Amino acid sequence: MKKYLWILAAVCFLQGCSKDEEEEPYVPWRPGDDKEETIDLDKATKVMILTEQAKNRIVMIDQPTGKIAWEWTAADSGLSTGEQAWFNTPDEAKPVYNRTCVLVTASGGGVGLIRIADKKMLFYAKPGGNPHSAEVLPDKNIVVASSTGNLLSVYVYDAVSSYVSKPAFTMPVYSAHNVVWDRKRDCLWTGTGAQLLKLSYNGNRAAPELSQVKSYDMAAGNTMAHDLAPVYGEDAMYVSSVEHVYKFDCATEKFLGVEIFQQKDIKSISTGPEGYPTIVMRPTSGSGNWWSAEVCDLKGNRLFNRAGYQIYKTRWYVENPFGYPEVHTL
């Protein structure tokens, strides 16, 4: 009888484990998965784009397996030694043009548009002033936010000459950390201090201009806007400041609270289609550093970790219907 009860208990335990595994949308991350292995990008299922500062590179990780699906350093694009230094300390990388390219900024002073297939640099410039974010505009021009430069810079995209020496337009924006294009409203969003700014774009490719339309104040106690990212499938954006994380409803023009394991010092938030958890980056390295070796979800559950990595921002490698049309090509 005792033997029968033990067998029954074991069967129930295994069935319970199987049920839990079936309910998990992802393979749970295993702390021992520290070895860098690779997978073809077209075989990867759910890919994250990391700005990995330890080796000054952009890395695409297949989240369920932890394998590298693609990586890039400035040397891969044939830049000179001096130009390569512009891409030291990369701080943002986002997929654009139907995920055929990655738009990169780096604290070293550079901004670049890299074609994934051959790692060719289709556009690059040196805005300086700690570029922290960039966005492609509907006419293919590129706008860059420089945080210590307190500036937005608009560059005219040139399909013939990849290097563009000077911006065609600049606009002072205090501590500019982010830029997001809103296709529905035909406007550009950016954060400054404890405000979110709505900007209009004149659409003149040869003589581009931005101008402020409206500003939206965050709650008292916020000091500095940091990340700004569309919420996939919603008419909304995540906004992080040094102190808080909000969801900004673009229709009602209201800041909404967000349930998250940590409100302060969130460096990036990214969402995807159904089945993709919201991924969050916050510094865990201590001693005043700004990076982490791990990526978490909104509850603080670890989704990826690799010893030696210094990750600043993470984005899902997915389409962006908030900002771009369904067919979005150069």
From TrEMBL:
InterPro entries: DUF6528 (IPR045383), WD40/YVTN_repeat-like_dom_sf (IPR015943)
Superkingdom of origin: Bacteria
Xref: Pfam families: DUF6528 (PF20138)
Xref: PROSITE patterns: PROKAR_LIPOPROTEIN
Protein name (record): PQQ-like domain-containing protein
Organism: Alistipes timonensis JC136
